[in-house]
Specification:
The chain has 246 residues and is an alpha/beta fold. It has helices at residues 26-34, 69-77, 109-119, 124-138, 153-164, 183-198, 210-216, 234-245; strands at 5-19, 40-54, 58-62, 84-89, 93-96, 171-175, 202-206, 219-224, 227-233.
């Protein structure tokens, strides 16, 4: 029996307008825009990208910096709307992209749990219920009542990961988030994500670590200049990627 398609990406293209001139402030930008003195270059981060992920599959996205990986994940998660094409997802999507991006520096870790959780769509009741679990997993202890501005980048990432993973989604979107914190926390966070995998979650995963993609994923694609240049079984695609990067 064929598995249900949970992510379908069809002919997706993403264009950005890049200004050719330096503009120092908003007033200057508006004046140049109105007088048509502001010139732009079109930059296509993605072109004609199409693939499907079936329920329970784990797709790795490989590619060098600037190949369009993070743009693709933001489109699938709904953060960006593609210039052309469309994306269809079935089920609850949990995007673990820029962990802690919604934190407010002046607020404590405790306050940011509720702020960040609300941004991710979690109810106060759920956050109340999961609060101790979040703090325990983040290992912040007494630092939970310290303003975020005094946290290291690793501490912020650990708290962001701990908040973002309190629910069990149907589709999990990961962008380098298994590289947060020290070596021990990386292993701990990977184990938590692997437990989600065991429950049949569908995964879209970006990592610069080929070993990590091989360990976690069963399928993979390679992006190069915004195009898919290879897709299929993860071992087969990994060999192609290794040849590209050597």
């Amino acid at each position: 029996m064929k598995k249900e398609v949970t992510v379908k990406v069809s002919n997706v293209g993403m264009r950005f307008n890049l200004t050719q001139e330096r503009v120092d402030n908003l007033k200057e930008y508006i004046i140049k825009l109105l007088t048509r003195k502001l010139r732009f270059n079109d930059f296509w981060a993605l072109r004609d990208v199409s693939f499907e992920i079936h329920k329970g599959e784990r797709l790795g996205v490989l590619g060098l910096n600037g190949s369009g990986k993070s743009t693709l994940l933001k489109i699938v998660s709904g953060v960006l709307k593609p210039t052309k094409g469309n994306v269809v997802t079935r089920g609850k999507v949990a995007p673990l992209l820029e962990l802690g991006a919604g934190f407010t520096p002046e607020y404590t870790g405790r306050e940011n749990i509720y702020l960040y959780g609300a941004m991710l769509g979690y109810s106060k009741e759920l956050l109340d219920e999961k609060f101790d679990e979040i703090v325990d997993f983040s290992e912040l202890g007494e630092f939970i009542d310290v303003p975020i501005k005094n946290y290291s980048s690793g501490m912020k990432a650990r708290l962001g990961f701990s908040v973002a993973t309190i629910v069990e989604p149907d589709i999990l979107i990961l962008d380098e988030v298994l590289s947060v914190g020290d070596k021990r926390f990386k292993r701990k966070s990977e184990r938590k994500v692997m437990n989600m995998f065991d429950k049949g979650v569908t995964v879209l995963f970006v990592s610069h670590s080929l070993d990590q993609v091989l360990r976690i994923c069963d399928k993979a694609i390679i992006l190069d200049g915004g195009h898919i240049v290879a897709k299929g079984n993860v071992e087969k695609v990994a060999k192609i990627y290794k040849n590209m990067t050597e």
